[in-house]
Amino acid sequence: MLLFAVSAGVPVAFVGGAVTGWTRSVIGAPTWVSWTIAVLAVITGLPLAWFSTTPGIRSATNLLLRAYRREGLEYVEQQYLSRLTPYRAGIQLYNLALALDHAGDQDGALAVYRSAADRGSPPAMVNLAYWLSRHGEEDEAQEWYRRAAEAGYTRVVPGAGER
Fold this sequence. Notes:
Blueprint: H1 2-20, H2 22-27, H3 31-51, H4 54-71, H5 73-79, H6 86-102, H7 106-118, H8 122-134, H9 138-150
């Protein structure tokens, strides 16, 4: 919600500044520069505000899901996630893995959970560990549970840590 407030509020502040003239007085630039900054703030800020809402998050996940189905995981990682920090990319991949899991594509979800976990997403680590545990790969599952706990994941997973 903070991202929404900031990304929606900054364009409003710059447009207000362009109208009242305070941005011109602060940065000492001509009127056209003040209005250009205001327009750029609107162009970049409002999409960020949209994608920080629940429908926006769903839209981003659906975009990744369509790209994944069309081109594959490597394409999604290169085209959509390469500019993000590993943590943010992990979150996006985790959401994609959940969508694949809900759609019944367990093999695809497993590959995406693994990619998200490799980027440091604790929820992806737990989901990957759970899947591995259910398929008899206990040693690797325990390793992912341990890494999730070390990364700060605090939710209790039934069966986690039991041998």
